[in-house]
Amino acid sequence: SQKIEQNSEALNIQEGKTATLTCNYTNYSPAYLQWYRQDPGRGPVFLLLIRENEKEKRKERLKVTFDTTLKQSLFHITASQPADSATYLCAPNFGTGANNLFFGTGTRLTVIP
Amino acid sequence: DAGVIQSPRHEVTEMGQEVTLRCKPISGHDYLFWYRQTMMRGLELLIYFNNNVPIDDSGMPEDRFSAKMPNASFSTLKIQPSEPRDSAVYFCASTDGAGPYNEQFFGPGTRLTVL
Questions:
Q1: Residues with Cβ within 8 Å of residue B10, at least 6 apart in sequence
Q2: Confidence bin at A2 (pLDDT 50/70/90)
Q3: Interchain CB contact of A43 with B (< 8 Å)
Q4: Is B48's CB within 8 Å of A93's CB?
Q5: How many CB contacts within 8 angstroms connect chain A with chain B?
Q6: A81 to chain B nearest CA, in Å?
Q7: Residue B50 touches chain A, beta carbons under 8 Å
Q8: 3 state SS of A42
Q9: What whole-number distance in Å separates Cα of residue B61 and Cα of residue B82?
Q10: Residue pair B39/B32 in contact by the 8 Å Cβ criterion
Q11: N or C: which end of chain B has fewer CB within 10 A?
């Protein structure tokens, strides 16, 4: 069965620095991969999607990379701010339908002022 | 749009009691998903519906769990009887279409505690 690992449960970073979160998966390569943000007491919110034939995707201060050889996606937040503090979930999709989305357990990011 | 609505937000019950969680998806969305989130296992898909029809319930842990979607604007997840290991946050999500690029919109969740 598929296994999704996100680098660590918690990551602390100084304001202004770049935060880098890792998502590794085993076995089959996903057709695409989504990243979500989850704040305490709330549901996940979609941030970015990257397809298997894309190496990199950007949205404002966010950047996602996808390396199918390494079976890894990296999620970067540049010029991090305390408001970026949240849990970030990666969700690879190993099929063609929305039901094939598998969520990692997440990395809790804290940006220290 | 108000987004996905779930009720109640918190539920505390005793072991053996019946629990019913409710969800109203975003209007116009034809897919509805029920997830369970725990610290140990993360977010797990329990069941999903397409046009009110259950398509895949392979994630439902036991026969104690059941879900219905009587119409396009309402779904329930029922646990009967409830057990302490059912304690978790239950999320409902909806999306427009089953394409691989459709983002899912999540509700605020119901935090269930079974004593």
A1: B110, B111, B113
A2: low
A3: yes
A4: no
A5: 62
A6: 24
A7: no
A8: coil
A9: 12
A10: no
A11: N
Q: Which of A72-76, A90-94, B19-23 has the lowest mean pLDDT?
A: A90-94
Which two tokens mark A80? 């991090």
Average pLDDT score over chain B: 93
- Reported as a single tens digit per residue, the pLDDT across B32-67 is 999 999 988 889 999 999 999 999 898 898 899 999
Q: Which helix (H) or strand (E) holds A17?
A: none
Question: Quick check: B115 pLDDT over 70?
Answer: yes
pLDDT in tens, A20-46: 999 998 877 787 889 999 999 999 999
Amino acid at A25: Y
B42 and A103 within 8 Å at the Cβ level: the answer is yes
CA distance A111 to chain B (A): 21
Q: Which of A32, A43, A89 sits opposite B101 (nearest CB)?
A: A32
What value does the mean pLDDT of chain A take? 90
A87 neighbors A11 (Cβ within 8 angstroms): no
Does residue A47 contact residue A100 with C-beta atoms inside 8 Å?
A: no
DSSP string over chain B: ----EEE-SEEEE-TT--EEEEEEPPTT--EEEEEEEETTTEEEEEEEEETTEEEE-TT--STTEEEEEEETTEEEEEESS--GGG-EEEEEEEESS--TTPPPEE---EEEEE-
Q: What is the DSSP letter of A101?
A: B
Q: Which residues contact A5 (CB under 8 A, 6 or more apart)?
A: A23, A24, A25, A104
